[in-house]
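Why should sequence recovery work at all? Because a backbone constrains its sequence more than one might expect. Tight turns favour small or flexible residues, buried strands favour hydrophobic ones, and helices have their own preferences. The token representation captures these environments compactly. In the example below, the structure is given first.
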């Protein structure tokens, strides 16, 4: 991680999307968090930091570079069959707020302390939309491995809802938000551990107790009868799992190397996402920056006959200055700029992007503010972004990854469709299938019938263009574009392959009835 941070320090310049404040503080406007960053600290994204009153931001590198069909972004109403050179960097402005109430004991070298006390004793806060982030100095905790690890950050935010109550045998109960991952197994004879959400724990599970937490001389005969010795840790059965209501502040830690800590004497995981978006939080993902110039990227795009440049893979808002540098070079050579974003934007960053970006895709992850807050964002911010992007004249398409048990209820899908139709019935809405991967393996893939149901709900609410994505050949006509006037087939697709494109070039009209088809043709 140190090597990665050092490399990024060499690939940075002063940003443009910030305001200088008193005492060398800065306010960043790249994303909806609007981080207030004291000197020497980083924003939530990890890649924008305050150095002596100047906001330094990423430039001159990529962590991913790939030639894609534009349909993969997905843009279905923009230059069908065109190639897009996609580039991405490191960092993300969202996180998963799997958290504990403030009185939860956390194990340190000197004994158990409350997780709230670790936060309270840390340095100055970085303010974010849904809470605060602090950087403890010199605080160490016991990780799942039994080693002492430095705490990199402490988080606090407000939470209202149910919490899971986990009661290990012979140990005090621990409360946490239902999605928080615990290290557990249902088979003590196997070495492999799973990361199990608190809501999914049962009395059939065993939890991890690192050996330094419970020295052998403190183990009674009764306890020894239920403990399973697994080498560097013990396994202890879950006695009971229940839930109760909660309304107050909750806390989380980010711990170096192991990305785990001991809460209530059992090992729990940090919250991590995946690949480039979280590489600074999880260097085991193995992604490193590759130095490159904007001219080099555009040269490559032209050699590969790309029509578009796309800032994607991580959250591009937090690297907007670099994206604009690339898009400016591309615009001079006739290339189109496009953004693939989570929508956690500010008016300032959209004004900054608009001269250089024509296509903008937003991931609308659901319609539940509580869920969005768990990701470290406000639903209202994303909805405002969608409205503003459309009003400003970007070509907008919206994607919802439909996740079983997360956002696949009819009421929530209908709410999304109603909102989008209220902005404009011409906004293409892509409902796509979830596949279990990385750390979200606690649920199955999205069934085809769920996507078909979501699409039916979208059309029923008045959206004219609803697509069911990433299940090629399994969703019938929902991969294709039809004319809303006469229902003629205009663009036939199988996955990312265009079989037929009958939209009138330039004007974007149906050749059968003359109805204008919105988009970029």
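From this structural description, the recovered sequence reads:
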């Amino acid at each position: 991680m140190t090597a990665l941070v050092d490399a990024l320090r060499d690939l940075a310049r002063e940003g443009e999307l910030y305001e200088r404040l008193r005492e060398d503080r800065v306010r960043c406007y790249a994303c909806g968090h609007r981080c207030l960053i004291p000197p020497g600290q980083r924003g939530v994204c990890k890649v924008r930091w305050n150095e002596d009153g100047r906001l330094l931001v990423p430039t001159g590198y990529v962590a991913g570079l790939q030639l894609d069909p534009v349909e993969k972004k997905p843009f279905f109403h923009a230059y069908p069959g065109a190639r897009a050179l996609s580039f991405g960097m490191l960092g993300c402005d969202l996180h998963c707020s799997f958290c504990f109430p403030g009185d939860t004991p956390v194990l340190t070298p000197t004994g158990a302390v409350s997780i709230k006390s670790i936060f309270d004793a840390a340095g100055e806060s970085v303010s974010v939309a849904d809470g605060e982030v602090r950087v403890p100095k010199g605080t160490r905790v016991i990780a799942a491995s039994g080693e002492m690890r430095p705490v990199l950050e402490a988080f606090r935010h407000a939470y209202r809802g149910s919490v899971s109550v986990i009661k290990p045998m012979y140990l005090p109960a621990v409360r946490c938000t239902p999605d928080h991952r615990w290290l557990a197994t249902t088979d003590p004879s196997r070495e492999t551990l799973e990361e199990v959400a608190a809501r999914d724990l049962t009395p059939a599970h065993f939890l991890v107790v690192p050996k330094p937490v419970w020295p052998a001389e403190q183990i009674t005969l009764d306890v020894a009868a239920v403990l399973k010795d697994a080498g560097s840790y013990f396994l202890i059965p879950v006695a009971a799992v229940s839930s109760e209501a909660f309304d107050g502040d909750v806390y989380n830690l980010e711990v170096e190397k192991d990305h785990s800590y001991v809460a209530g004497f059992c090992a729990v995981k940090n919250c991590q996402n995946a690949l480039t978006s979280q590489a600074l939080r999880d260097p085991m993902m193995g992604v490193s920056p590759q130095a490159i110039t904007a001219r080099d990227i555009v040269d490559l795009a032209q050699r590969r006959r790309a029509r578009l440049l796309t800032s994607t893979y991580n959250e591009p808002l937090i690297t907007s200055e670099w994206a604009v540098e690339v898009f400016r070079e591309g615009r001079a050579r006739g290339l189109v700029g496009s953004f693939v974003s989570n929508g956690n934007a500010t008016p300032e960053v959209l004004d900054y992007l608009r001269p250089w970006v024509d296509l903008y895709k937003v991931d609308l992850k659901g319609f539940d503010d509580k869920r969005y807050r768990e990701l470290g964002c406000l639903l209202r911010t994303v909805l405002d972004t969608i409205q503003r992007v459309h009003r400003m004249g970007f070509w907008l398409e919206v994607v919802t990854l439909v996740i079983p048990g997360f956002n696949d209820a009819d009421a929530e899908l209908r709410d999304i469709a109603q909102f989008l139709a209220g902005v404009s019935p011409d906004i293409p809405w892509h409902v796509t299938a979830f596949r279990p991967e990385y750390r979200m393996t606690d649920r199955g893939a999205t069934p085809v019938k769920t996507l078909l149901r979501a699409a039916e709900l979208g059309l029923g609410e008045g959206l004219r263009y609803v697509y069911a994505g990433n299940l090629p050949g399994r969703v019938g006509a929902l991969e294709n574009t039809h004319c809303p006037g006469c229902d003629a087939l205009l663009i036939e697709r199988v996955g990312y392959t265009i079989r037929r494109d009958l939209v009138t070039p330039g004007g974007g009209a149906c050749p059968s009835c003359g109805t204008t088809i919105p988009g970029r043709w």
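A few observations help interpret the result. The chain has a mean pLDDT of 88.
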